[in-house]
């Protein structure tokens, strides 16, 4: 099969800029080393190889960050706030005041990707992405350092997501809006496994009557027992293989479960309709055209529509996974615009 | 820039202008990787080769890449990919010997973990000892505790608000002090003291705020102008580092690097810039004893303050270490050098032999040399370089407490020590160890906040600044690898609390609490070529034969 591997490498190189190709190929090969065939994971080497950055309360390019750790659970959230020109170095007194007393400022609760196994809130690629979200959308961002598999399987990631959402909703300093109308304007966002987490946390929120204004699922990680057409067609072609997807689901789902488990396949044979769950938020689902998982992502969109929920599909035909890590392609800028409009409904955005 | 740039016409939004050849790719830098723009094609090609090699290698060879190979400086993609490639091609040529990583490329010296003889080294609670012996894999770790009941959450929220007001007051007070408005500052101290009564001072912001309020008040009043005597400091230092992993991390990491640097040498010499109780050295002695081919002759020169009461503390510690060496059949010689300040040490006192492999070890010491002009650091680094050491191991607090502006320094310290106190709380509940440990931290805080000039010795600076200094002084980095990282992680497991983390950063390791790095360990070797700086004053002393 060596011949077809070479064809595959050349193909992926043609559709992304060179530095993106280097970045994602590096991840691919490193991750191949870390996954063991017995289902265990080389966590030490993973943490060693992962490039991390500390939080920084000194504003850099208009964004500052700090980490908050819940004493009881050890759950870490990294908070990103925008600073304005001429504002003195951020003082702790700002933590008492709301984000704004005149307008709504979106707060994006962000779940990083990594197929439930890799990366952290303080991974460089995600720290950078969250900072970009703050700048583009004028939002506050809270990045959740949820527990990862295989050490912590379903439902840990969802539990941590729910805990983080409750924490965010209860911060007075994340509120915005006129004094009569002040509340935390929460959106959930995530890429890959983070997108999957958004869905499940949003369902729980809707069932509990906790308001979430919108879901942003970027290249979300869904799957099922069936092998879809896109999985067969794109297997191994653009950085990802069906085999590695299978490994991550085995590592996340309870032992012995298959991929039709509702965590993986929410609208599948064991899933349930969301019809009637009126508090479920509107969704923006971003599907890269070269992601082998796209048939599951599109099925998710269909499932939301059938349940009567508001969903916008952003299908980026020539995008590969991870296109949003580096701002060196059109898809990145289109994505940022879409997210900006999605979380700022008062903006006069052009309808595409 | 070649074919790849035309291929994404339609997706292209190339970032003009093209950076010069030696520049790093800015976008990859933002992702934590250092790759020169001119090297992108090379790395890509190597990645392709690596993938082909991995695909065509037997699976045991590939898994050996993960489990046995030592990785270095993964931010430098070119060298990381190259080292993996050479591992794979080497294994291909010796398919019957998959564990031959120890004799591979020159950039990856063999790993030999240090023996962990807990009884000799530390006092650790017994359940932690069991943990190490059973090598409990991460997947079997007990699940984290359930979230707190509702009422506790409410209390925490309240505390947060008062805590925030207190921090605000502290900043304002520090600003007043910087402006010289001591009268107002003093009044604020009274207010803050009152505020303290309404919050929990057992933990969190209340705990550390108390020490900062105290330090501010001393500064305002002008008290605290005499530094504590060195021996009291030593005792508190001992307790502080016994109750937290910081010093153990420093020792483990430095020893591992020293062990590797001493490979193949029969006469080795370690200079310890602050011997204290010599806690670092039994482990190194034992590791040298276990070296294949037998241990070298080990000389240890320990620097420390003169003993006040006619005792020779340095010699006593040395005798203890000699006993350890004797018990494992390592030929050992100790020498104590008494000096109240590091800058008083002259190289001739250390009696370095040109035939021996020399290691210079500095744990939390060099920052004391960053005092007011003329700062002694450059001349000290220069004579260290002049000794031509095989390795210099450096561990320092990862924070900038040496800023000239008082408010900046104060703010950094507040944030830094909040984190350190948090970590202590989680790691150690044993009294009186914890109280004594906190007293040590209080001393550091006081020194940073109350003192100026020569008396202010806790002039911590972050790794980035030390890198500059060492590069200028004629050193280049010796990278700490994934084996040191792994051992540091294992060490952290002894502290049965989640929250500590180790991070790799350009070949150095940083230990932190919940993603905030607190101390950084690095290793250095002499750059080849002539000494870059003119010799310091008193050079005659250095060149004299002893």
TrEMBL record, chain A:
Q: Does Hydrolase show up as a keyword for this record?
A: yes
Q: A GO molecular function for this record?
A: gibberellin binding
According to its UniProt record, which residues of this chain constitute the active site? Answer: 192
Give one Pfam family, short name only: Abhydrolase_3
Task: Indicate the family of this protein.
Answer: Belongs to the 'GDXG' lipolytic enzyme family.
**Name of the protein in question:** Alpha/beta hydrolase fold-3 domain-containing protein
Q: What are the subcellular locations of this protein?
A: Nucleus
Question: Mind listing the UniProt keywords for this protein, alphabetically?
Answer: Gibberellin signaling pathway, Hydrolase, Nucleus, Receptor
**Main localization (coarse):** nucleus
GO BP annotations, alphabetical order: floral organ morphogenesis; fruit morphogenesis; gibberellic acid mediated signaling pathway; positive regulation of gibberellic acid mediated signaling pathway; raffinose family oligosaccharide biosynthetic process
Give the source's domain of life in one word: Eukaryota
Q: Which residues form the Alpha/beta hydrolase fold-3 domain?
A: 108-324
Q: Name one GO cellular component term.
A: cytoplasm
TrEMBL record, chain B:
Lineage of this protein's species?
Eukaryota, Viridiplantae, Streptophyta, Embryophyta, Tracheophyta
Q: Which family does it belong to?
A: Belongs to the GRAS family. DELLA subfamily.
According to the UniProt record, one GO cellular component term is:
nucleus
Q: Which domain of life is it from?
A: Eukaryota
Composition bias (Low complexity) maps to 96-109
Q: Where is this region: VHIID?
A: 237-302
Listed under GO biological process in this entry are: gibberellic acid mediated signaling pathway
Q: Where is this region: Disordered?
A: 1-21, 89-117
Q: What does this protein do?
A: Transcriptional regulator that acts as a repressor of the gibberellin (GA) signaling pathway. Probably acts by participating in large multiprotein complexes that repress transcription of GA-inducible genes.
Name the segments for region: SAW: 450-525
Which Pfam families does the UniProt record give?
DELLA (PF12041), GRAS (PF03514)
Residues forming the motif VHIID are 268-272
Instruction: Relay the domain remarks.
Output: The DELLA motif is required for its GA-induced degradation.
Q: Does the keyword Ubl conjugation apply?
A: yes
This one is known as DELLA protein
């Amino acid at each position: 099969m060596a011949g077809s591997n070479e064809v595959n490498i050349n193909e992926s190189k043609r559709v992304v800029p060179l530095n993106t190709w280097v970045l994602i190929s590096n991840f691919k090969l490193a991750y191949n080393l870390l996954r063991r065939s017995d289902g265990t994971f080389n966590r030490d080497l993973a943490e060693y190889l992962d490039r991390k950055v500390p939080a920084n309360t000194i504003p850099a390019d208009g964004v500052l960050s700090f980490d908050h750790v819940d004493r009881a659970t050890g759950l870490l959230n990294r908070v990103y706030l925008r600073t304005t020109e001429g504002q003195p170095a951020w003082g702790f007194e700002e933590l008492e005041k709301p984000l704004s007393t005149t307008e709504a400022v979106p707060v994006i609760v962000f779940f990083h990707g990594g197929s439930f196994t890799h990366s952290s809130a303080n991974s460089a690629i995600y720290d950078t992405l969250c900072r970009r979200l703050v700048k583009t959308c004028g939002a506050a961002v809270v990045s959740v350092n949820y527990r990862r598999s295989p050490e912590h399987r379903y439902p840990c990631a969802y539990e941590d997501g729910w805990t983080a959402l409750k924490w965010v909703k209860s911060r007075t300093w994340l509120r915005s809006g006129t004094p009569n109308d002040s509340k935390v304007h929460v959106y959930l966002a995530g890429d890959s496994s983070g997108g999957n987490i958004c869905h499940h946390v949003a369902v729980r929120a809707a069932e509990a009557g906790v308001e979430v204004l919108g879901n942003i699922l970027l290249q979300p990680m869904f799957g099922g027992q069936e092998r879809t057409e896109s999985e067969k067609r794109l297997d191994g072609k653009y950085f990802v293989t069906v085999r590695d997807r299978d490994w991550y689901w085995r590592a996340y789902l309870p032992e012995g479960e298959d991929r039709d488990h509702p965590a993986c396949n929410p609208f599948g044979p064991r899933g349930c309709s969301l019809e009637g769950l009126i508090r479920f938020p509107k969704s923006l689902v971003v599907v890269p055209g070269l992601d082998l998982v796209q048939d599951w992502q599109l099925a998710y969109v269909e499932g939301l529509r059938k349940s009567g929920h508001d969903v916008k599909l952003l299908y980026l035909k020539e995008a590969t996974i991870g296109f949003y890590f580096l701002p060196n392609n059109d898809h990145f800028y289109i994505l940022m615009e879409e997210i900006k409009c999605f979380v700022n409904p008062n903006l006069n955005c052009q309808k595409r | 820039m070649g074919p790849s740039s035309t291929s994404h016409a339609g997706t292209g939004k190339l970032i003009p202008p093209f950076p010069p050849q030696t520049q790093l790719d800015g976008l990859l830098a933002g992702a934590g990787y250092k790759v020169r723009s001119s090297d992108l094609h090379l790395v890509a090609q190597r990645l392709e080769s690596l993938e082909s090699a991995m695909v065509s290698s037997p699976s045991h060879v590939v898994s050996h890449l993960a489990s046995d190979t030592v990785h270095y400086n993964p931010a430098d993609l070119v060298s990381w990919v190259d080292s993996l490639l050479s591992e794979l091609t080497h294994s291909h040529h010796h398919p019957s010997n998959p564990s031959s990583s120890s004799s591979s490329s020159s950039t990856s010296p063999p790993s030999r973990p240090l023996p962990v003889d807990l009884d000799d080294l530390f006092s650790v609670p017994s359940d932690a000892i069991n943990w190490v012996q059973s090598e409990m894999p991460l997947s079997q770790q007990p699940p984290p505790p359930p979230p707190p009941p509702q009422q506790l959450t409410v209390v925490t929220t309240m505390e947060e608000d008062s805590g925030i007001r207190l921090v605000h007051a502290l900043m304002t007070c520090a600003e007043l002090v910087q402006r010289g408005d001591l009268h107002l500052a003093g009044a604020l101290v009274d207010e803050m003291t009152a505020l303290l009564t309404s919050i929990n001072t057992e933990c969190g912001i209340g705990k550390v705020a108390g020490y900062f309020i105290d330090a501010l008040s001393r500064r305002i009043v002008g008290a605290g102008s005499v530094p504590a005597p060195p021996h009291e400091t030593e005792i508190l230092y001992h307790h502080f580092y016994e109750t937290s992993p910081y010093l153990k991390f420093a020792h483990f990491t430095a020893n591992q690097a020293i062990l590797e640097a001493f490979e193949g040498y029969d006469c080795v010499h370690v200079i310890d810039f602050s011997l204290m109780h010599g806690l670092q050295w039994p482990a190194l002695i034992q590791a040298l004893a276990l070296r294949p081919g037998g241990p070298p002759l080990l000389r240890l020169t320990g620097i420390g303050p003169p003993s006040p009461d006619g005792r020779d503390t340095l010699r006593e510690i040395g005798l203890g270490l000699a006993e350890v060496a004797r018990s494992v059949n390592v030929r050992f010689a100790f020498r104590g050098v008494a000096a109240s300040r590091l800058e008083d040490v002259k190289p001739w006192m250390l009696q370095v032999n040109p035939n021996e492999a020399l290691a210079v070890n500095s744990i939390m010491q060099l920052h004391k040399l960053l005092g007011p002009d003329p700062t002694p650091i450059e001349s000290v680094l220069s004579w260290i370089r002049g000794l031509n050491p095989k390795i210099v191991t450096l561990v320092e607090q990862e924070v900038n407490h040496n800023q000239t502006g008082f408010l900046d320094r104060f703010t950094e310290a507040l944030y830094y020590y909040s984190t350190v106190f948090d970590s202590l709380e989680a790691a150690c509940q044993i009294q009186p160890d914890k109280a004594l440990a906190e007293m040590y931290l209080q001393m550091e805080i006081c020194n940073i906040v109350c003192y100026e000039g020569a008396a202010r010795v806790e002039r911590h600076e972050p790794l980035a600044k030390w890198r500059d200094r060492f590069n200028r002084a004629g050193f280049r980095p010796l990278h700490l690898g994934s084996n040191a990282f792994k051992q540091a992680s294992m060490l952290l497991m002894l502290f049965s609390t989640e929250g500590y983390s180790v991070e790799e950063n350009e070949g150095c390791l940083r230990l932190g609490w919940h993603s905030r790095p607190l101390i950084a360990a690095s290793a250095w070797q002499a750059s080849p070529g002539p000494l870059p700086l003119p010799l310091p004053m008193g050079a005659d002393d250095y060149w004299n034969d002893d």
